[in-house]
Design goal:
single chain, mainly alpha, DNA polymerase, domain 1, 2 domains, three-stranded antiparallel beta sheet, 5 strands
């Protein structure tokens, strides 16, 4: 497919993605996989996209056999190509796609002890420290924590509302009262930043879905601003508007890595480890598994059940026979 025609197709893909209100991350990921698919088959025209089932099967098999990608990554590639054919090209893909699938690996989550949580958070500073406390105290994914708006935390009801979380679902989770004083101080600082932006002619924030059309002035309202805004203004790649977005997840992971390097903890700890620790420590306190499922926003309780494995001391909770010997 020529560069010009390829560019036209990708523009169509982006337009459909934006019309359906997919995130910018999904847009970038889908476009990347579609480009890789086109290049893999050396497609030169739209006619080359025909017989999609067989070509998708070949591409997915290549990914599993030659690139050794993870099962989740292969599924992402499949979703992008199904989107291309069904949503952009309006082709149903009725034949079976029987590709060699990448092996699924079940990993027991890395969990910190309470002492390790204290160690890591104590070594963090400022906004990063507050975010880490919310990750552990509310069980949020880092993307959910960084996407929080001012009105998403209800101090009176002691709850956090996560809008459009994984699976595009809303949920309510617990709010750690202990961070209320420092979070309120942080919010005052964010309000000052927002007021300065407004005085300079900025102050606009990205609004999800069609809210910007439904409420034309809401993007400048205080309640819609991000709880953890970026230090710098940036150009929105979709709208071309200069805005203050939220902190990038990579910044948070760097802060955690920096804190970890100052300890003797050997575990591989990321922002998601705080969420794993939240769930496991609730189980240790006797919290019902269904309640934890709801707080985490898991669709299937089987996903939440993996934390019960962490509680089993030793292999499957079995004491080693060596511990019975007096040697």
């Amino acid at each position: 497919m020529s560069t010009q025609k390829n560019s036209g197709l990708m523009d169509e893909v982006r337009n459909v993605i934006r019309r359906k209100h997919y995130s910018i991350h999904t847009e970038r990921s889908y476009c990347d996989w579609i480009k890789r698919y086109i290049n893999f088959h050396n497609m030169l025209s739209r006619d080359d996209l025909k017989d999609g089932e067989a070509k998708i099967e070949q591409f997915l098999t290549h990914l599993a056999v030659n690139t050794k990608i993870a099962a989740a990554t292969q599924n992402l590639a499949l979703n992008a190509l199904i989107f291309l054919y069904r949503q952009v090209l309006n082709e149903p893909l009725e034949k079976r796609i029987d590709a060699i699938r990448a092996p699924k690996k079940v990993n027991v989550p890395v969990v910190m002890t309470r002492e390790e949580v204290v160690q890591i958070i104590t070594l963090m500073e400022g906004t990063h420290r507050i975010i880490a406390k919310i990750l552990y105290g509310s069980g949020l994914r880092v993307s959910e924590a960084l996407s929080l708006r001012i009105f998403d935390i209800d101090f009176d009801m002691k709850q956090v509302t996560v809008h459009s979380g994984k699976g595009n679902k809303d949920r309510i989770t617990t709010f750690p009262e202990k961070i209320e004083p420092e979070l309120k101080t942080h919010i005052k600082q964010v309000k000052n930043i927002h007021d300065q932006d407004l005085r300079k002619g900025y102050g606009s924030v990205y609004l999800p879905n069609a809210l910007s059309r439904k409420y034309p002035n809401a993007d400048r309202e205080w309640r819609w601003q991000y709880m953890f805004p970026s230090r710098k203004l940036s150009l929105d790649p979709r709208s071309g508007v200069t805005r203050r977005h939220h902190i990038d997840p990579s910044v948070m992971n760097k802060a955690i890595k920096s804190a970890l390097s100052k300890t003797d903890i050997l575990k591989r700890i990321t922002s998601h480890t705080f969420r794993h620790s939240f769930a496991t420590h609730l189980l240790m306190r006797g919290t019902d598994i269904r309640t934890i499922q709801a707080l985490l926003g898991h669709k299937d309780v089987a996903t939440t059940m993996i934390y019960t494995h962490v509680l089993q001391q030793g292999g499957h909770g079995v004491t080693s026979p060596l511990d019975d010997l007096d040697i």
